[in-house]
Structures are given as structure tokens and as C-alpha cells.
């Protein structure tokens, strides 16, 4: 019997009817791109519906908006009658959506989940066993294993329990970590037709949700830097916008160091997402700016701060979303001075690099 193939026209599977969850995923993406502008996001959603027929006769965009209100995703805007703003539930939903998009779905884990190389009297018991050491507590001794050892070592007829028979349940120290995430909001983040700020926001939101779910004892502070640097709340990340700014990396690093000095944890680090070179300094009330090439006055002050971070054992991981060779040369010099790490990433791969490095760094003791 001859074997062959029969071809027919592919008909994509159709949902029986549009549902709230599928539209919500699209809405979460759109409201991130529009920096939290609900009206603009819904306008875009309506345009997409018109073009791609996202809804049907039984469930339209109007129904979806009503469901958003009923389920607590939208609040009335007190400044504009008849308008809506994102609720706290939406802000958390956007962070979860970013986490799932970038890093996949995570199961909630216990607190203090960063392993260190240290063992002994730690925070959590493991399945490992070891010999008794002076200072081990009675609660750490595995009685079943110790009695078995005594029977093997001395025989059933001469049962006695000696120090050499004792086995101890090994425990692990679980470290806490303090991280400052720096996000470049200079004008170059939207230049040349590339939207680099939206992926940066998604990474920040996903990292915040990762810390909340998996490492609840950790701290994560987010700062933005343009001509100046300032701290923002995690709940404000969806609303982050690029400004007509230069790149004052020095101000960002100074603020990050100030924040980390106040943290009592032993493990501290800085993540910096940027697409450009430092181009700005603040001198008193005036700004020194130079967007042409690498200005040594600006670069040297930036490198001095990188060295200061190294001296206080704060590694800096730089995620450069640009491919210019002279910018990579600067980042390599910056990284060498700090003894940190650097990644040159496409926008698509940025999130995976951040999370991979976050988890690896948490396993160190700096």
C-alpha cells in the first residue's frame, strides 16, 4: 500500500466566544505601552477589535469595560468625571502578566530562598546528614540514624551511644539580599523608532513580582535616571515615561548607593538597564551636558563611582540594550573597574538575562 499525504486548507481553531481573560491579557499589554493611560489603551483595543474581530455578537468591548469595573480592575478617576484609572488590582495584574511573559509561571516559595555556601546552625533543615560537631544542639541530632550507627558500630549486645555514632541534620543558611534597579529614562530610550522603555518597564515589574512571590525577605528599590535620579514606587512602574533628558548615570549611582547604605542586609547589588552612554552631570544648580561621544569629564566621574561600589562590595550588573562598539567599550571599562558583570542584549532577551543573573547573584555571599 502506498503511503502519501493529503493536504487541505488550514482553518485556525476558533474560540466558541470571546472571553474576559483573553481580552484582559491584551489590555494589560496595551496599558503598559500607554504608561497607564486607560482611555488610550481601550481606544487601541477597540481598533484591534475592529481589525481582528476580537469580540463577537454576544460579548463586545463595552461588556469587557463593564467587567473591568465590576471585577475591580478600574477605578473612577477623581480628577476627570466619567474617566477611569487603574486600580491596585490592575497594577498587580500588570506585574504578574510581565512576570509570566518574561519568566514563565512561578509557584510561590517559602521565605528567604537564597542559598549561601555556609552550613551549620542555619535557617532550614536539609536532607543531608553529617557527623556531630561541638556546639550542635540536641534538636539537630537525628536520633534514628544515630541509634542505627551505634548498633552497627557496637553490636546489639553492647548497645551504647557515643559521640562518634551521632549524626546531625544539616541546615542551610538562607541569605537576604537588597537590590536597586536603575532604569534609564533618557530620550534615547525612544529614539530611532525603537520602544526600549516598555521592555525595561516589563523587566522591572516582573522582577518586582518575582521578589514578592519567591524572595519575600528581600528588598527591591527602583530608581529612574535622566538629568537627575529619583526613586519611584513599584506601583508606579506601569506609568513610567521617557522624558526629554540626558543620561546622568552618576546621579543614579549616587542615589542607589545612598539607598543601599540604609539596608542592613549583607548582600547588596545594583542592576542598571540603559541604552546609552553617560552624557550629563549636575554641578551645583547647573547641568554639564555633552551628547557627542564619550566626554571624559562625565566618564571619569562615572568610573569613580563604579570603583566606590567595588570598595563597599556592591556589584553592578549592566544590561546594555545597544550594540554600538564604542558604547560596549565604555561598559567593559565600567564593568572592569567595578568587578561587576555586563550583558549586551536584544530587547527580546533582556528579561531572561535579568532573572538569570538575579538568581545566580543571590547564591553568592559578597
From TrEMBL:
InterPro entries in UniProt: VWF_A (IPR002035), vWFA_dom_sf (IPR036465)
Occurrences of domain VWFA (ranges): 179-277
Region (Disordered): 107-129
Segments forming a coiled coil: none
Protein name in UniProt: VWA domain-containing protein
One Pfam match: VWA_2
Origin: domain of life: Bacteria
Amino acid at each position: 500500500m502506498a503511503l502519501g499525504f493529503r493536504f487541505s486548507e488550514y482553518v485556525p481553531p476558533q474560540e466558541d466566544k470571546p472571553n474576559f481573560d483573553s481580552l484582559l491579557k491584551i489590555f494589560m499589554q496595551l496599558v503598559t505601552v500607554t504608561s497607564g493611560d486607560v482611555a488610550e489603551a481601550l481606544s487601541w483595543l477597540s481598533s484591534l477589535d475592529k481589525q481582528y474581530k476580537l469580540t463577537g455578537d454576544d460579548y463586545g468591548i463595552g461588556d469587557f469595560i463593564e467587567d473591568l469595573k465590576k471585577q475591580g480592575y478600574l477605578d473612577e478617576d477623581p480628577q476627570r468625571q466619567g474617566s477611569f484609572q487603574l486600580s491596585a488590582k490592575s497594577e498587580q495584574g500588570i506585574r504578574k502578566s510581565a512576570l509570566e511573559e518574561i519568566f514563565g509561571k512561578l509557584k510561590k516559595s517559602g521565605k528567604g530562598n537564597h542559598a549561601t555556601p555556609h552550613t551549620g546552625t542555619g535557617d532550614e533543615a536539609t536532607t543531608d546528614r553529617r557527623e556531630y560537631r561541638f556546639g550542635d544542639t540536641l534538636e539537630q541530632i537525628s536520633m534514628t540514624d544515630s541509634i542505627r550507627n551505634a548498633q552497627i558500630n557496637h553490636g546489639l549486645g553492647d548497645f551504647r551511644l557515643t559521640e562518634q555514632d551521632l549524626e546531625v541534620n544539616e541546615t542551610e543558611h538562607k541569605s537576604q539580599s537588597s537590590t536597586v534597579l536603575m532604569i534609564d529614562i533618557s530620550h534615547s530610550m525612544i529614539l530611532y523608532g525603537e520602544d526600549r522603555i516598555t521592555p525595561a518597564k516589563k523587566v522591572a515589574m516582573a522582577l518586582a513580582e518575582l521578589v514578592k512571590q519567591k524572595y519575600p525577605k528581600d528588598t527591591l528599590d527602583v530608581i529612574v535616571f535622566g538629568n537627575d535620579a529619583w526613586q519611584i514606587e513599584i506601583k508606579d512602574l506601569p506609568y513610567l515615561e521617557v522624558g526629554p533628558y540626558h543620561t546622568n548615570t552618576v546621579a543614579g549611582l549616587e542615589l542607589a548607593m545612598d539607598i543601599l547604605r540604609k539596608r542592613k542586609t549583607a548582600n547588596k547589588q545594583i542592576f542598571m538597564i540603559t541604552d546609552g552612554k553617560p552624557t550629563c552631570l549636575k554641578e551645583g544648580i547647573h547641568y554639564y551636558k555633552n551628547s557627542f561621544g564619550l566626554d571624559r569629564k562625565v566618564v571619569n566621574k562615572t568610573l569613580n563611582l563604579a570603583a566606590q561600589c567595588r570598595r563597599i562590595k556592591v556589584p553592578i550588573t549592566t544590561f546594555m540594550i545597544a550594540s554600538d562598539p564604542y558604547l560596549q567599550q565604555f561598559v567593559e571599562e565600567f564593568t572592569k573597574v567595578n568587578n561587576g558583570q555586563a550583558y549586551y542584549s536584544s530587547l527580546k532577551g533582556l528579561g531572561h538575562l535579568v532573572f538569570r543573573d538575579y538568581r545566580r547573584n543571590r547564591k553568592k555571599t559578597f
